[in-house]
Structures are given as C-alpha cells and as structure tokens.
C-alpha cells in the first residue's frame, strides 16, 4: 500500500535514475494513483523518458503529461527540415512501407496519418520520429486496416497472455467481435495494462483493441 506522498517520492526517485533527465526539470504531483508531470525540457526524447519512467512505478494508475519542450534556441529546426528528416528516417526503416505514412509538421509538432496493416508498424513510425532533432511532440493518427482474412482466435490471445510472466491471465478477460478485441478485468500496474494491449495487437487480423482493464492497487490515505 502507498500513500500519495510515497508514490510521489517513488516517481521522483525513478526520474532521478534516468540518465537523460535532471530531476529538477520535472515537477511531480500525485492524487489517488494519478501522476501529473510538469516542467520544461530541451528535447522530446527527455519528455518521453520522463513519462515512461513514471509509468513503470508500482502504484501508478495513469500519467497526465504536461511537460513542455523548449529548445532555448538550441536544436530548433524549421518545420520543413523536420519533415525532410522524418521522411528520410522512414525510408531507412524496413518496418514502414514507403510513401504510406503522411507527415505534417507545425511548429515542431508532428502529425502522422495513413493506413498500415500492423500496429507494430504504427509504433515503429512514432519511434522513428522521437529521435528527430527539433520535434516537440507527436500526434499519431495512423489507422490499422489489417488485410489478412484470418479469423481472430480468442484462445490464441489468451495463450499469449498466459506466456507473459508479468500478467495474471486469470484476471484478464478477452472478447473478440469481428476484428476488434476488448480486454476487461484487472491488472495491478500500468505496465501490465500496456503489456496486455501489446499482446492483443500481435494477433493476426486485429484492427482495434479496446483496453478496458482496471488497475487494482491498494492505497493508504
């Protein structure tokens, strides 16, 4: 069991452990398992690292990220330069089909659009962008339109959940309707919730995952 104060302290310690982040850059507030991060950093990668560090702390139910990226004149680039760098990165990424993902950049904020067959391709596109200098944030509007005609096998997803060491499969329920998968039940961390969703996405034929898993964690007040 954790109090708000203990969870806040744990998140702050997790941020200190990350090599890219100066803990003084990030403010942390906590209420009932919901962590809010504030502050200003000089790269988008730092922003993501802070968010990931907070998500992995036991007891965190959700992360509200309000961190701003300010280059202070260093590392800033024109939108056209950022767009060119992203397109080049996509061409070198074998997981992303050429000329499928559309890129829009406005004041350093990147929007991705298009239709891909697999969620890992959508994730790979966003990962490629996070390392581009000058990026302030990403809105990923890529849609998954899986072309496979395979039926989604509920048992295959359930077996995959059993194989994952971090998830108690007896507490996670899988429902399949058409090409959509819904996860319900409970897990004990935000990490487990995200892992369960990734497992569901790996099933052939999936175009949407509704993650309705609740995070069951006891707090002291």
Assess the beta-strand content as a share of residues: 25-35%
State the total count of DSSP E strands: 12
In sequence order, what are the helices and strands, one letter per element?
A: HEEHEHEEEHEEHEEHEE
Q: pLDDT below 50 for ≥5 consecutive residues: which ranges?
A: none
Instruction: Describe the largest sheet.
Output: 4 strands, mixed
Structure description:
The structure is a single chain. With 221 residues, the chain is of the alpha/beta class. The protein has helices spanning 4-17, 44-55, 79-92, 119-130, 154-163, 190-201, and strands spanning 26-31, 34-41, 62-69, 102-106, 109-113, 115-116, 137-140, 143-144, 172-177, 180-187, 208-211, 214-215. The strands form 4 sheets. Strands 9, 10, 11 and 12 form a 4-stranded mixed β-sheet that branches. Strands 1-2-3 form a 3-stranded mixed β-sheet, with helices on one face. Strand 4 and strand 5 form a beta hairpin. Helix 1 packs across helix 2. It is flat. The N and C termini lie close together (9 Å). The model has no long low-confidence stretch (mean pLDDT 90).
Keywords:
221 residues; alpha/beta; 4-stranded mixed beta sheet; 3-stranded mixed beta sheet; 6 helices; 12 strands; 27% strand; flat
SSE inventory with pairings:
Blueprint: H1 4-17, E1 26-31, E2 34-41, H2 44-55, E3 62-69, H3 79-92, E4 102-106, E5 109-113, E6 115-116, H4 119-130, E7 137-140, E8 143-144, H5 154-163, E9 172-177, E10 180-187, H6 190-201, E11 208-211, E12 214-215
Parallel strand pairs: 2-3, 5-7, 6-8, 10-11, 10-12
Antiparallel strand pairs: 1-2, 4-5, 9-10
Helix pairs in contact: 1-2
